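Researcher: Structure prediction, please.
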Amino acid sequence: MGWFNKLAAKYILTPEKLAENELRDTRLALYQSERQLLEAQMRVDYYCNILTFLEAITVDGVESVAESQRPKLSSQTPVPQRRAPDLSSYRGGA
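Model: Predicted structure follows.
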């Protein structure tokens, strides 16, 4: 009967085990709530940006907003061209 007592002691719910389970569940609930809060903040930022964009179109017109969002070609720094590797020393099988 000693093995039965050990087995029962392993799986019986004590106040400490109940507290461990509740602690784990509460941490998971906190994590999920924080994630939902971050997702909600992202949605708020998205809709604020959409509202600002649509208000600008209503006030200034589509062409004006499109011109302001189009990148300025003269202000961009030229991107250096990527050099091709020197293949003169390559002696591959041909």
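Model: Residues 15-60 form the longest helix (46 residues).
Researcher: Thanks, that helps.
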